[in-house]
Design a protein that fits this description.
Layout: E1 6-11, H1 21-28, E2 32-35, H2 37-40, E3 49-52, H3 57-61, E4 73-78, H4 87-93, E5 99-102, H5 107-114, E6 123-126, H6 132-139, E7 144-148, H7 155-164, E8 171-176, E9 184-189, E10 202-207, H8 234-244, E11 251-255, H9 261-269, E12 274-279, H10 282-294, E13 300-304, E14 319-322, H11 329-338, E15 343-350, H12 353-365, E16 370-375, E17 378-383, E18 386-391, E19 395-403
Parallel strand pairs: 1-4, 1-5, 2-3, 2-4, 6-7, 11-12, 11-14, 12-13, 14-15
Antiparallel strand pairs: 7-10, 8-9, 8-10, 15-19, 16-19, 17-18
Length: 408
């Protein structure tokens, strides 16, 4: 027997008053009404069974699959159920024929309307389902963001996290209890929001100047903390990172990370993934931490110690940069090649011909193809009224593809 359809009805910021007469009639005609305590409290005249959502929502909602064929059910959701809402769960449990979805206006749409800011070019996200690193990454790429907050992280904390990650101070709009008699709009700046008690229901808008976000920059070496010029130079970084072809969700290893300049720029590319910066030198480790904090790379994890020992147990990488081996070249490459399920791009930098030769011999013995480039770069330096070119040490860039221990 065909089961009665389930109504999934969005409740906007005006609550029950924002629903049409037809929607209210539909809800009152159901046998069961599901929703949060806040929504169910608006239906004291409902005569059927009410089911209040609690912890373990997915398991709770699964019971809808076992309803009797003639049981009529309505589910109340916040705003548009298709926008970080319960419809993701219901779509996995019910067929399209079983579900009737009636969305309301999202609270973020209302927030943009309250301050008369168009939202057709905005990026929207939710801290209910995404980590703060996601918001930081978006703020480095987009000038206009709407954020659904979550109770564990206050608007003040969010603003502090953005500022600490290097997001420039900008306009921030906090909307609390939208649609209620306690509605409060605070139009301020990231650095100006006070640490206070906030309404449980709130959303925020991050509004930067359109020209402000720059996710990946051509950064001078002087921008990084480093020791006596021991840093992968900017143009070598760019060439190496281009060969690594890092995607935004990649897991990346930086072995022999030195100052961490490469790690930082990899973390900015793999902003939805994670970067593991492996280094054994205490002074260099301090520089990595400094640079990580300065450029707000929360997805960069610093791993102190010698490779390959400290590589054991790290998540499988999609890209590996080998900046230094500490004399363990062969054992590091052996460790990589032995990883089950490995499918990664590898780029290595060498300043010494002997180290390059050792690596080439290893790849040749394993019959793995490599590409090799020799990079010689000179930078202009003013001398009186003229300019001379000052060369840096030549660098060899070697790249290869390692897959499941197979020859590629």
């Amino acid at each position: 027997m065909h089961k009665t359809s389930v109504y999934l009805i969005g409740m906007g910021v005006e609550g029950r008053n924002g629903l049409s007469a037809a929607q209210q009639k539909t809800i009152l005609e159901q046998d069961e009404l599901w929703g949060t305590e806040r929504f169910l409290a608006q239906w004291p005249d409902f005569g059927g069974k009410t089911v209040c959502f609690g912890p373990g929502l997915r398991e709770q909602v699964k019971r809808i699959q076992d309803r009797k064929p003639d049981t009529r059910v309505a589910i109340l959701s916040s705003g548009d159920p298709n926008f970080f809402g319960i419809s993701r769960i219901l779509n996995d449990l019910l067929s399209p024929e079983e579900l009737i979805l009636q969305p309301a206006v999202s609270s973020l749409q209302v927030a943009f309307a309250r301050v008369c800011v168009p939202w057709d070019d905005a990026v929207l996200t939710s801290l209910h389902t995404k980590p703060i690193e996601e918001l930081i990454g978006l703020a480095k790429r987009h000038h206009k963001i709407g954020v659904l907050t979550e109770p564990g992280h206050s608007p003040y904390w969010i603003c502090r996290q953005l500022l600490q990650a290097g997001i420039p101070d900008c306009r921030m709009v906090l909307c609390e209890d939208l649609g209620s008699e306690n509605e409060k709009i605070t139009d301020t700046r990231l650095a100006s929001l006070e640490d206070r008690s906030f309404a449980l229901l709130n959303v925020i808008l991050i509004l930067q100047e359109p020209s402000s976000p720059r996710c990946i920059t051509f950064r001078e070496d002087a921008a990084y903390a480093h020791e006596s010029g021991m840093i992968t130079k900017r143009d070598v970084r760019l060439l190496s990172l281009e060969r690594l072809a890092i995607a935004d969700q990649d897991t990346v290893w930086d072995i022999g990370a030195g100052s961490g300049a490469v790690s930082v720029e990899m973390a900015e590319r793999a902003w939805r993934g994670q970067v593991f910066s492996i280094e054994r030198n205490a002074v260099q480790l301090a520089h990595i931490h400094t640079n990580r904090t300065k450029f707000g790379c929360n997805n960069l994890k610093v791993i102190p110690g010698d490779a390959p020992q400290v590589l054991i147990g790290l998540p499988l990488p999609q890209a590996v940069f080998l900046g230094g081996s500490g004399g363990n070249m062969d054992t590091i490459l052996d460790h990589l090649l032995a990883l089950s399920g490995l499918d990664c791009r590898l780029v290595a930098n060498f300043a010494l011909i002997e180290n390059l030769t050792q690596a080439m011999n290893w790849f040749e013995s394993h019959r793995i193809k490599t590409d090799l480039s020799a990079v010689s770069i000179s930078y202009g330096q003013r001398i009186g009224k003229g300019t001379r070119l000052v060369p840096i040490n030549s660098i060899f860039i070697l790249n290869a593809h390692l897959k499941n221990g197979e020859k590629v």
